[in-house]
Design goal:
single chain, 198 residues, mainly beta, Immunoglobulin-like, 5-stranded mixed β-sheet, 48% strand, binds copper (II) ion
Length: 198
Amino acid sequence: MKKITYALFIILISMSKISSASMVMVGVENFVFNPANITVNVGDTIMWMLSAGTHTTTSTNIPVGAASWDAPINTANQMFMYQVTVEGEYEYICSIHESMGMIGRITVLGTSGINSISETQAKILNSMVQDDLKIKFNSSKNWQIGLMSLTGAMVKQFSVVTEAGRIESFSLSDLPNGIYIIRFSDGQASKSQRIIKQ
Ligand SMILES: [Cu+2]
């Protein structure tokens, strides 16, 4: 299991270098998906990982144009990845334990109409963070900044009013080491990026 965790870490690190899309993990447990409800962006990849038991992840209700899936999650097939390309609401089940309420839901947000925030507007100066995350802002705005774990759970939120050229520091010293996703939003546009707390 340790080897798998390490391999996963390497995959995540390499993904973070080639794209701004996120990977969101869903634990497959006896007899729930954890978390059961997630919200992701078009382009993100969902990874189901076996925690215990013998299960499946099987799509039931998905948007028009999206690819259906049906994959075993068990000792022989410990993970399954699915990249979302269509926005909308997705419902899936464990086909073995649906009657026990083993059901999951995915809300996929589209990127249409959302302007992306360029690096010149908000640039993370240290993506490997020890105590303080430093971000340089190049516009005067009211920013909402959220820090999420890889499961999509919000672990920290900051609100900051910036001036052009200012560098702001955000303390992450109380967080456990690991990979986080930081999401900037100015109310109209947003962008997500990975950081590593170490
Ligand atoms: Cu199951």
